[in-house]
Structures are given as structure tokens and as C-alpha cells.
Design goal:
single chain; 316 residues; alpha/beta; five-stranded parallel β-sheet; four-stranded parallel β-sheet; 9 strands; 37% helix; globular; binds N-carbamoyl-L-aspartate
């Protein structure tokens, strides 16, 4: 794909080559940052708008950190639902036209699937999807792949990727699948039937030639996983709160369960966690969920440079 000026709305846009381009640029930036090289000339003079219609800690700050560390500027509305013309019934299309006039790149999160596309239709300014309801979270998917690569040292060949928890409403596992299908991996999905991975995603993986195992038994499945990607039961997506309570706490990764996992397995979680990983796991060297937060910044730096046509200036 031609990154320059592109919207990042869906993981479906990425070929294997595109994914590798982002990950390799992220690795260069990661190294340069660790070595203390100066990066703050790369996006000097560029302005990012972050507009969030749904709560966020990491994703908004991560995009903003990436922009600021590259020397750009940021304007932020973290509560668009109550503090924007959305309250006066402005359409997403018109909001896109407005924000796109002010900024060079727009980062948006919203509780409805495909809402970010509606906003992007109103502007030629690149728009990044920071999560559209239960649908997708492309930049989180990319940073998860980067974390796996960084820890495993190879591009996923033969890995058994376990995804555990709310695979129905979790936009993160959806995006992870859509990116990982381009590589030679196996998938093990652990979810109660009511929170199973959407059928169209399972079918798409099978069409891509990937093996998919679905089970409700985490205790048994964990032993064969190379990546244990945990997810929160997405409380805010349930219309019936009793239905949520039925699933709350359904899978909890604790040290007894970790004993059954491979020595070299890694544990991912996009965070925030509720109760699905106990605090004692934080000390286990296989826990990578806090490292993911750092990786998110370099992956978003890479994406911003590509979208804003400045990636060729990374010549260190
Ligand atoms: C995730 C999200 O918002 O989809 N968090 C994140 O972006 N780091 C996961 C979640 O909220 O459970």
C-alpha cells in the first residue's frame, strides 16, 4: 500500500509486506531511541489531533507520545461525547471535515463499529483508527506483532498463538488475527461459546490456510501456546449486565496456571486488565504486557512517519 497520506482504518488494508515495513521501521526507531539519538526533528511542524469518544489511557497517550517525541505537536479532546459539537448533533462526516482542516493527522476512537470510516470520509487528512467499538484496533494489532517479533526473534514461523477471553467483542484479537493470517502461525482460541471468535474471522483464517483450534479449556490449551494473548471481558459491549456477570472472571491467569505454560511462552495483554491476570504474574519474565506499552510508541512513531511521508528521513 502507499502509506503516504493514507488512512489507517482497518487491518484488512495491510499486506505482509506492509506489516514488515512498519515493524522494521519501528525496530530502527526503537534502537535509535534506546541509544539516545535525537528524533525530534522528524515531524517538526506537524500537528496531530486526537479525538476520543470512548475512554482511553494508553492508546491516546501512546499516539501523543509518538508525535511529541518526533517533534510534532498535539491537540487533544479526550471526551468528544460531551465536549464537542457531537452533542449538537454534528455528523461524524462534518466533524472530520473540521478536524482535518486543523490537523495533519487525526487519531480517533469511538464506541461504534465503522464510525472512524464515516469521519475519514469527510476529510483528505489521514485518519488513524484507535478502536471502533468491537470491530478493530489496527495499531494495537501491529504493536502486538512487533512485541512477538522482538521477543521471539523471528517472524512468527510455526508459532501457536493463543487468544483467551472475550474474542467476540474484543477488537484487539480481531485485528491480531487479520494481521497474523499473513504468516505461518497456528491459532488456539479459548473462549466460552457465548464469547467465541466471530465465524467470519475463523473462516477467513481457514481460507488463508491457517489451522484454528477452538476450546473452552484454558487449563489444557495453555501448555501448547507460544503466545498467550489475554483479553478483558468487554463489559461496555453487553446490553444485559447479567450476561456480563456470567462471563466475568471466566479465565484467570495465575501462577498455578503459568506453571503449565512453556518456559519460553510470552504473555500479552492490551490492558487495562480487570481480573484476568493476577498481579503475581507481573514478576514472571514471560509477562510482556508492560513492554507492549513501550512498543506501542515506536510502532506508532513508524506509522506516523510513513503516513506523513517522512520515513525516508530515518537514515540512521
Ligand atoms: C484495548 C481497547 O481499548 O480495545 N485497550 C487498549 O487499547 N490498550 C483493550 C480493552 O479495552 O480491553
Amino acid at each position: 500500500m502507499d502509506f503516504k497520506g493514507a488512512d489507517i482504518l482497518s487491518t484488512g488494508q495491510f499486506s505482509q509486506e506492509d506489516i514488515l515495513r512498519v515493524l522494521k521501521l519501528a525496530a530502527k526507531l526503537d534502537k535509535a531511541w534506546a541509544e539516545g539519538k535525537s528524533l525530534d526533528h522528524l515531524l517538526h511542524g506537524k500537528l496531530m489531533a486526537t479525538i476520543f469518544f470512548e475512554p482511553s489511557t494508553r492508546t491516546r497517550f501512546s499516539h501523543e507520545t509518538a508525535m511529541l517525541r518526533l517533534g510534532g505537536s498535539v491537540m487533544s479532546n479526550p471526551d468528544m461525547l460531551s465536549l464537542s459539537s457531537y452533542k449538537k448533533q454534528e455528523t461524524l462526516h462534518d466533524t472530520g471535515k473540521m478536524v482535518g482542516t486543523f490537523a495533519d493527522v487525526v487519531v480517533m476512537r469511538h464506541p461504534e463499529a465503522h464510525s472512524v470510516e464515516k469521519l475519514a470520509a469527510g476529510t483528505n487528512t489521514p485518519v488513524i483508527n484507535a478502536g471502533d467499538g468491537p470491530n478493530e484496533h489496527p495499531t494495537q494489532g501491529l504493536l502486538d506483532l512487533y512485541t512477538i517479533w522482538k521477543n521471539k526473534g523471528h517472524l512468527f514461523d510455526g508459532l501457536n498463538i493463543g487468544m483467551v477471553g472475550d474474542l467476540k467483542y474484543g477488537r484487539v484479537p480481531h485485528s491480531q488475527c487479520d494481521l497474523l493470517k499473513h504468516f505461518d502461525v497456528r491459532f488456539t482460541f479459548v473462549a466460552p461459546q457465548g464469547l467465541a471468535m466471530p465465524r467470519e474471522i475463523v473462516e477467513e483464517l481457514k481460507r488463508a490456510g491457517r489451522e484454528v483450534i477452538e476450546t473452552e479449556n484454558f487449563d489444557e490449551a495453555i501448555a501448547d501456546m507460544d503466545v498467550i494473548s489475554m483479553t478483558r471481558v468487554q463489559e461496555e459491549r453487553f446490553i444485559d449486565k447479567n450476561e456480563y456477570l456470567k462471563y466475568k472472571g471466566v479465565y484467570i491467569l495465575d501462577s498455578a496456571l503459568m506453571e503449565k505454560a512453556k518456559k519460553e511462552a510470552i504473555v500479552l495483554h492490551p490492558l487495562p486488565r480487570v481480573d484476568e491476570i493476577t498481579a503475581e504474574i507481573d514478576l514472571d519474565p514471560r509477562a510482556k504486557y508492560f513492554e507492549q506499552v513501550h512498543n506501542g510508541v515506536v510502532v506508532r512513531m513508524a506509522l506516523l512517519l510513513l503516513i506523513l511521508g517522512k520515513d525516508s528521513e530515518v537514515n540512521f
